[in-house]
Write a structure and sequence with these properties.
It is built from four helices and two strands. It starts with 15 loop residues before the first strand and ends with a helix. 50% of the residues lie in helices and 6% in strands. It has one domain.
Length: 108
C-alpha cells in the first residue's frame, strides 16, 4: 500500500514523485530524494550491524517523508540528519553523504 494511500496528492497542487524504494517526495526535492534512496540502498547492502542499518534507514525514511510536504519540517530533518550523516563512516557511503549534505544545506 502506498505511503499516502487515501490522500489526493494531485489536489494539493504539488507534484509528488515515487522513488525506486517506494518513498514519495515533492518533485522539487527529486535529486535529494534519489540521493537518499541511493544512500539507503548502500547502507542496507553494507556489512554494518543490523541495528545500525535499522537506525540509519529509519532516519533516511524520516527525511524522505518530510520531503513529501510542500514545506518540510526543518527541525525533524535536522534531527534525522544528525544520525544519517554518521553513514559517512560506512565504506562506499562517504560520497553520497557529502552530496546529500549539500542538497540539505538550506534545511540545516
Amino acid at each position: 500500500m502506498p505511503k499516502f494511500h487515501g490522500i489526493k496528492v494531485e489536489a494539493t497542487g504539488q507534484n509528488i514523485i515515487t522513488l525506486g524504494d517506494g518513498n514519495q517526495v515533492n518533485a522539487k526535492f527529486g535529486d535529494l530524494g534519489q540521493s537518499l534512496t541511493e544512500l539507503r540502498n548502500a547502507v542496507t547492502s553494507s556489512g554494518v550491524h543490523e541495528s545500525t542499518k535499522l537506525e540509519l534507514v529509519a532516519d533516511i525514511d524520516t527525511i524522505q517523508s518530510q520531503l513529501a510536504k510542500p514545506e518540510p519540517n526543518r527541525t525533524i530533518i535536522k534531527a534525522a540528519w544528525e544520525v544519517v550523516k554518521s553513514a559517512a563512516a560506512i565504506n562506499g557511503c562517504t560520497v553520497l553523504v557529502h552530496k546529500i549534505a549539500g542538497l540539505l544545506a538550506h534545511f540545516l
